[in-house]
Amino acid sequence: MNGLKQEKIKETLNATRKRRKRQIPRVYQLKLQNLSKKDRKKLDRLFLEAKWLYNYVVADIENRLTKDSWKLKEVEIKTPEGFEKRDINTLSSQMRQGIIERIKIQGIKKKFRVLGLHQIPENSEPANAQLVKKPSGYYLYLTCYLQKEKALEEIKKKQTRQPIGIDLGIKHQITLSNGEKISWYAEETKRLKKLQKTLSRKQKGSKNYFKTKLKIQKEWEYIQNKRKDALNKAISHLKKFSLIAIQNDSIKGWHEGYFGKQVQNTGIGGITARLKRLATLIPVFFVDRYEPTTQVCSFCGHRQKIPLSERTYKCPLCGKEIDRDVNSAKNILKIAVEKLKGEGKLLKTLPVDCGEVTPVEWAITHGEAGSLPL
Ligand SMILES: [Zn+2]
After folding, report:
1. How far is the CA of 300 from the centre of ligand 1 (A)?
2. What is each CA distance from 318 to 296, 315, 322, 354, in whole angstroms?
3. Does residue 177 carry a pLDDT above 90?
4. Helix or strand run (H / E) with residue 114
5. How far is the CA of 341 from the centre of ligand 1 (A)?
6. CA of 352 to the centre of ligand 1 (A)
7. What is the dihedral of CA 194, 197, 199, 203, to 10 degrees?
8. Which residue among 5, 89, 166, 261 is the one 20 to 30 A from 35 at the CA level?
């Protein structure tokens, strides 16, 4: 590569980096519509080979993950009958190289009709696309960059000046410091349980077995979509507040404990991830996970041990009784406000009203939000 060309590439990269600073990424899901049987077969094969290659390398990373592993033309896969060889001949070298990260569409030279284009705002900049196979069909995940200012305008229109604290829980996934509770426990449906029973009676490997299996996968996708929907609604509700305070990594501990399964079902693990992304648009303050937010009375600051089964916080000192989760949410907000005040990030404080969380005049601008200790 000559020097001039390199210089040009560097320039383009710099320009993009500059532009990205004023943009936010958003991923859109588009469904591929007009796939012919042949296209589908080809795509199926691509995904199959990708899976084989991936599994093969992952099964023995130490020996198989080399700088040449993308050159593999043949892999061994484990079947009920033992190990069998499989050819890798549909995947291009580039695809093989990027196999773990993403799979690009290749070898299908036609225009796709897609469902869902209306979601994408006009002046957004598409950056990359990823092909994803789901039980219900093929999807394109299109990453677009939106103008940050536009996104902020949208948020500001709906925003109140209230700060809010969030407590994440099992029964109600989100409890807010203002007493609001948001729950969306999307249970495994009866249909899913029935299908799983049916599957157990089918002969493994038979046509009916695969038919039932596909139905199960589709049902899973449906449940997953319902959870995603609920999470989206919750996030857009949270965008109305001028500051969000949440305890960092409060989910992590649960995963290790006996709540593991329930936490997964509720899909609240996704909340903190979404909030971290939201933090580029509105101030989100993550309170240290070791702060004793459940034990402290949010009215007087008294601290006591409170058993997990006790849903109400009863303070022996000031006599106040309050829902356990609301109490935590209030404490989380309080800690955030104190920290921010200490750092001089809040302009002025309005009068306190009887033990409630201090209403604050929020002076954090979005530009400054990036400098919050997240
Ligand atoms: Zn108290």
Report:
1. 4
2. 12, 6, 12, 12
3. yes
4. strand 114-115
5. 23
6. 16
7. -150
8. 89
